[in-house]
From TrEMBL:
The lineage of its organism: Bacteria, Pseudomonadati, Bacteroidota, Sphingobacteriia, Sphingobacteriales. One of its GO terms (molecular function) is oxidoreductase activity. PANTHER family: CHROMATE REDUCTASE (PTHR30543), NAD(P)H-DEPENDENT FMN REDUCTASE LOT6 (PTHR30543:SF21). Residues 1-142 form the NADPH-dependent FMN reductase-like domain. Its EC number is 1.-.-.-. Keywords: Oxidoreductase. This is NAD(P)H-dependent oxidoreductase. Pfam families: FMN_red.
Length: 178
């Protein structure tokens, strides 16, 4: 099985990327491709730029990566209660080239933040929006208070949250018949 994993953040120190890397460690027996959102940086979306310049090649490249995968693992950063500007811009460009750019691919959708809500606002928005863009959200996981509940060496340190995370991974594996 081919898995595409990335964080909806352009931060080099992204805690969502750390959560993604931890999560893909439970899929070692599969072909996992870890993307960096920075590799898909595009001009700020505008209809004027779209009309004058067309679509960025990087939008097509990300859509190609999605088309070649069987499962998407995505963890979204929350900036001011919504998507990061980097992820929103990528989403805007990709959705203009293909309104269902997630191509009905199954997805494990996650979020984390330093706060106690764990990116809950962006998660709630994504649960509504991403299926309209062709994502089949199999299940979700939110990790609150990242710095208190995540260890750089061992991953999720809170036992209850670790068990929830593992149950979500097992749910994905069962639904994907892995």
């Amino acid at each position: 099985m081919k898995i595409l994993a990335f964080a909806g953040s352009s931060s080099r120190q992204s805690i969502n990327r750390k959560l993604v890397i931890h999560t893909i460690s439970f899929f070692k027996e599969h072909d996992v491709k870890l993307l960096d959102l920075n590799d898909f940086e595009m001009p700020l979306f505008s209809v004027d730029r779209e009309a004058s310049d067309g679509y960025p090649e990087k939008a097509y490249k990300l859509i190609d990566h999605i088309s070649e995968t069987d499962l998407i693992i995505l963890s979204l950063a929350e900036h001011n209660g919504s998507y990061s500007a980097a992820f929103k811009n990528v989403m805007d460009w990709c959705s203009r080239t293909n309104s269902k750019f997630f191509q009905n691919k199954p997805m494990l959708l996650m979020s984390t933040s330093p706060g106690g809500f764990g990116g809950g606002n962006v998660m709630n928005a994504a649960i509504i929006r991403l299926p309209k863009l062709g994502a089949e959200v199999l299940t979700t996981f939110s990790l609150p208070s990242f710095h208190q509940n995540f260890d750089q060496e061992t991953g999720i340190s809170n036992q209850e949250l670790l068990e929830t995370h593992l149950s979500k991974i097992n749910e994905v594996k069962a639904r994907m018949s892995l």
